[in-house]
């Protein structure tokens, strides 16, 4: 993909009540990827979509499209909607809560534009990742380590961050992957199906902060523990099913 520019990029953002960070997110995206298409798929009920549209009217540095996703049934579903609407051959999913840094996007895209990868994983756990701004969560961190090891075993290749919310791909790759899950399991499914299909996966260390706004699907405290156990078990089970060709 030599010669590609930010005009060849679609940024897909699934939002859920992130009115506190959406403007800052778009401002930083405009500085990093000017000219990119940005698709906001909003499944919440706050003013996220209103603020995004107001930003789009005031700034023309991004080609902004905002969709009220009334039939939303989870993050995976929202990303599917974004993929179906994306106009460009390079695509990246990004979170509006700014746990990930927009400034890492060029490094994420480089393996795609240089023809070295079909899928790029933004890893929070590989050497070089910056987690200095992240508040440690025992349940999340231990759960991620266990899942990363298990899914890597199922995929037949080492993946340091299966559930990261920062992934990039070519249009051809994501069509081939054709993930099915509508909720959180899709994060693993993208990587697992890419590996099983023989697609080239490159991992890039990224910056990761504690949540800057919005609402976590896992909650906090005991609710977080229960959610992580339930989601982790579902991810591991689906990874096994993909491995044996049963899903």
What are the main properties of this structure?
8 helices; single chain; alpha/beta; Spore Coat Polysaccharide Biosynthesis Protein SpsA, Chain A; seven-stranded mixed sheet; globular; 247 residues
Major sheet details: 7 strands, mixed
Net shape: globular
The helix count comes to 8
Named at the architecture level, the CATH assignment is Alpha-Beta Complex
* Mean pLDDT rating: 93
Can you say what the CATH homologous superfamily is? Spore Coat Polysaccharide Biosynthesis Protein SpsA, Chain A
Our measurement of the CA-to-CA distance between the termini, rounded to an integer number of angstroms, reads 32 Å
Question: Numbering strands along the chain, what is their spatial order in the largest sheet?
Answer: 3-2-1-4-6-5-7
The run of helices and strands is: EHEHEHEHEHEHHEH
Low-confidence stretches: none
Q: Write down the Rg.
A: 17 Å
Strand fraction: 15-25%
| Overall domain count | 1
The secondary structure category is alpha/beta
CATH topology, what is it called? Spore Coat Polysaccharide Biosynthesis Protein SpsA, Chain A
- Classify the helix fraction into a percent range: 40-55%
CATH class: Alpha Beta
Number of strands: 7
What would a concise description of this structure say?
The protein is 41% helix and 15% strand. With 247 residues, the chain is an alpha/beta fold.
